[in-house]
Design goal:
By secondary structure, the protein is an alpha/beta fold. It is built from nine helices and twelve strands. The structure holds zinc ion.
């Protein structure tokens, strides 16, 4: 086996691990349920790496990259505000604790930033914006080949751009944020779905079936995502915009809905139309572990 890297995507329900080669090609993959809390997160991550060592028959002594939700200080390898993982206290020294346990160097990155690096590997484009539509709405930026984290780590936090002064109160304390219109939790509130079908899938299926209320909600959601894409494109003008996150499990139908909303928004503006935002859109294939691959490439 040539030079390889290990990446982990630690999420609230599952932890994905991959081994990739220098080009980001996936050589092995493992998935485990995430145990919550600081001990649980470290234990799960260590178990996933051990499983990757077993799967490849290699000691995997290189750097392990980790993508995790919450506020991450990349330099120190620490995380906080990862509330869904039960890490809601002070800075948690994930990098040091996991590194000691595994006997390797561990680097830690915010999961959206990690996924953005994965989107670069996936698309072959090194000037792109990754829009993560999960529980919330956030973006990652790789501009001219460099990840832009921001001076306060807040680059790409487009979900908290207020667009409606009379809108819903957002958990960030502002009113009418884009996230309250265009996110997995906004969809779940607007279209509660019984059983195992995720709300996004249920809503898009109902709209496809001709339900007028579903069509209106789908189009409103797509317009919210399109607004985020427009803000990002007008701010940094990336070559490519990649849609990802849990809601991107919708695949091509998500890209089509957002592209259609972008075309609507550009219909009265030759300026906006000339930027061809709809033509720059791509969506992460539902089976591609974009954040784990990006996390692996952190250690390159
Ligand atoms: Zn907000």
């Amino acid at each position: 086996m040539g030079p390889v890297n290990v990446g982990l995507d630690i999420g609230a329900t599952k932890t994905l691990g991959v081994v990739v080669d220098a080009e980001g090609e996936i050589l092995a993959g493992v998935r485990e349920a995430t145990e919550p809390g600081s001990d649980g997160v470290v234990r799960t991550a260590a178990r996933v790496v051990e499983a990757l060592r077993a799967a490849t028959g290699e000691p995997l002594p290189g750097t392990v990259g980790v993508g995790i939700p919450g506020l991450v200080d990349h330099e120190r390898g620490v995380v906080k505000h990862a509330v869904n993982l039960g890490l809601d206290g002070d800075w948690f020294e994930l990098g040091d604790l996991l590194g000691d346990r595994l006997g390797v160097r561990v680097v830690v990155e915010n999961d959206v930033n990690a996924a953005t690096l994965g989107a670069v590997a996936m698309s072959g484009e090194d000037d792109l914006v990754y829009v993560s539509i999960g529980t919330g709405l956030a973006a990652g930026l790789v501009l001219e080949g460099r990840l832009r984290r921001g001076d306060h780590g807040a680059a790409g936090e487009v979900g908290h751009i207020p667009v409606d002064p009379n809108g819903v109160l957002c958990e960030c304390g502002q009113r009418g944020c884009l996230e309250t219109l265009a996110s997995g939790s906004a969809l779940a509130a607007a279209w509660p779905s019984p059983g195992q079908v995720p709300p996004a899938q249920a809503l898009f299926a109902a709209a496809q079936g001709g339900d007028p209320k579903a069509i209106a909600l789908r189009d409103e959601f797509a317009a919210g995502v399109a607004s985020a894409v427009r803000v990002l494109a007008l701010a940094v003008d990336p070559r490519t915009v990649v849609l990802g996150g849990g809601v991107a499990q919708l695949g091509e139908q998500l890209r089509v809905a957002v592209a259609s909303a972008l075309l609507d928004q550009a219909a009265s503006s030759p300026f906006l139309a000339s930027l061809d935002l709809a033509g720059r859109l791509r969506v992460v294939p539902s089976s591609y572990p974009v954040a784990a691959v990006g996390a692996a490439l952190l250690g390159r």
